[in-house]
Design a protein that fits this description.
alpha+beta, D-Maltodextrin-Binding Protein, domain 2, 3 domains, four-stranded mixed sheet, globular
């Protein structure tokens, strides 16, 4: 299990409490997170492994691991036969969202572990774009709602000195090279077609399609290129890292009018109250053909891996499964995030509401360095590894309404409220991005995917900055896509999706 070797696991409060509730007693063999993946793989190779692997993100069993150690080698126990008889919590999660079952199930129909379920609420709508409300107000501009209105706003930002320093130093729009900060994919995904960088596939009328060779992709690139050619997009946006983007946004006086991000403090600092309040989230822009969508994190609301797996050396797999299943309960999920009840958190008094006016169930207490005794007790009790069911309704019920939304302590409330109006623009058809690919073709698929990632990202930027020609070079680009295996990539994933849907 991932965890500090200096911790008294034998007397861990959560383990003792859980043993009383489940009548399952476990002995922990800890491993620091930094060494956990290497130690896990050594144990699996040796043939001498524990009854259960309980991991954090550092050694999570991903889809490739499950295909190797579950489907191919048979080391991992298939828990699917236990669900109907022994599960309360895993069954609840699957009923809540069938995509979780679909993305947990391997091609042989088995489920080789208990996942870490995550529905990061603000990740359900990103990348986002934040714009300076004070600059809009100063220049008597309305919030843009279409691609051409956005062009006019950026042009006004660049030409009319809204920061008032007498210099032509304003940048209309900036971003960076990680996908949740990419200018090109925010604008393409908003206004032209559903595109998820590094995955590239989307659903349309039930059919899996490949975005980068579509005419809508080319037209979106024309729009982004036109903004670039007019000097409305920061030239550094296509090469800089997030930290450099943040430095540019945080200059005094401010020089950036809008920026692409996952959440607002990737740009302005939430400790700079005036700047923080001025950053206003934008609704997706309507494109020239009426397309208007909000992109999502491609993996959000899907199973990316398993944090609790049972091995074939376990004499009591049913009991092990019940112990893992219990960890998906709301109570245990809150405990794993906030610690001991009464120390790290309490149940909210009746009548407490969350930021959307629904019942709030949990209130966090101060068990940080500011309260050392509480922190000490919480650390001794705490237990973070293993499965959780961190679902959106639970996350929101942990966000009580607050009086001051711009207090940095209430950051989660702020970014959740920024996210909520964007969700109505998320596509109704959603292609799972984390399906198991059959082991016979998984190496081929992953190699093509890696090559396409590098090529499409590079070529997309080249079209924008003028190193490729969108008219005379488009056919050659599509030929290159085929040489990199785009047709085969689409073929494999289409088959994978169709088979997953009938399991």
């Amino acid at each position: 299990m991932e965890g500090g070797t200096d911790k008294d696991w034998e007397n861990n409060g959560w383990l003792q409490e859980t043993a009383e509730k489940t009548n399952v007693h476990v002995t922990i063999i800890p491993s620091p997170s930094a060494d956990a993946l290497q130690k896990r793989n050594i144990l699996l190779a040796s043939g001498e492994f524990p009854d259960i692997f309980l991991t954090d993100w550092s050694a999570i069993f991903n889809k490739s691991d499950v295909m190797q150690f579950g489907v191919k080698e048979g080391i991992l126990v298939n828990i699917e036969p236990f669900i109907e008889e022994y599960s309360t919590e895993l069954k609840r999660v699957f009923e809540y969202n069938d995509v979780f079952r679909i993305t947990s199930t391997s091609p042989d129909g088995a489920i080789y572990g208990v996942p870490r379920f995550s529905e990061c609420y603000h990740c359900m709508a990103y990348p986002k774009v934040y714009i300076r409300q004070d600059w809009l107000d100063k220049l008597n501009l309305e919030m843009p709602t279409t691609t051409e209105e956005f062009r006019a706003v950026l042009k006004a930002f660049v030409e009319n000195d809204p920061n008032g320093n007498g210099k032509a130093d304003e940048i209309g729009l900036t971003g960076a090279t990680t996908w949740n900060t990419m200018v090109e994919y925010a604008l393409l995904g908003w206004s032209y077609l559903p595109v998820k960088p590094d995955f590239w596939l989307y659903l349309e009328d039930g059919e899996v399609k490949f975005a980068p060779d579509k005419e809508a992709y080319r037209e979106g690139l024309r729009y982004v290129k036109s903004l670039y050619d007019e000097g409305l997009i920061d030239k550094a946006a296509f090469s800089q890292k997030e930290d450099i983007m943040a430095q540019t946004i945080r200059q005094d006086p401010p020089i950036v009018g809008a920026y692409v991000c996952d959440h607002v403090a990737m740009g302005v600092q939430n400790t700079n109250r005036e700047e923080y309040m001025n950053a206003t989230v934008m609704i997706p822009l309507k494109g020239p053909d009426g397309f208007q969508r909000q992109p999502q994190n491609a993996n959000e609301g899907e199973v990316q891996g398993f944090m609790g797996v049972i091995t074939d050396t376990c004499k009591y797999p049913e009991a092990a499964f019940r112990w893992l299943d219990y960890q998906l309960s709301e109570y245990v999920t809150v405990v794993k995030q906030w610690g001991k009840e009464g120390v790290g958190w309490v149940y909210a008094p009746e009548g407490t509401v969350d930021i959307f006016g629904n019942p709030a169930n949990y209130l966090r207490l101060d068990a940080t360095e500011k309260n050392p005794e509480a922190k000490k007790e919480n650390d001794a009790y705490g237990f973070g590894s293993g499965p959780q069911a961190d679902l959106a309704p639970l996350r929101l019920s942990m966000l009580p309404a607050v009086e001051d939304l711009y207090d940095p302590a209430n950051y989660e409330q702020r970014i959740a409220l920024d996210t909520q109006p964007l969700l109505e623009f998320v596509a109704e058809e959603r292609l799972p991005a984390t399906l198991f690919v059959d082991i016979e073709v998984s190496d081929e698929f992953n190699e093509i995917k890696t090559n396409l990632k590098d090529f499409v990202r590079k070529a997309t930027v080249q079209f924008i900055i003028g190193d490729r020609d969108l008219d005379n070079g488009w056919d050659a680009y599509k030929d290159e896509l085929r040489r990199f295996g785009a047709d085969r990539y689409l073929e494999i994933y289409t088959k994978t999706y169709q088979e997953a849907m009938v399991q």
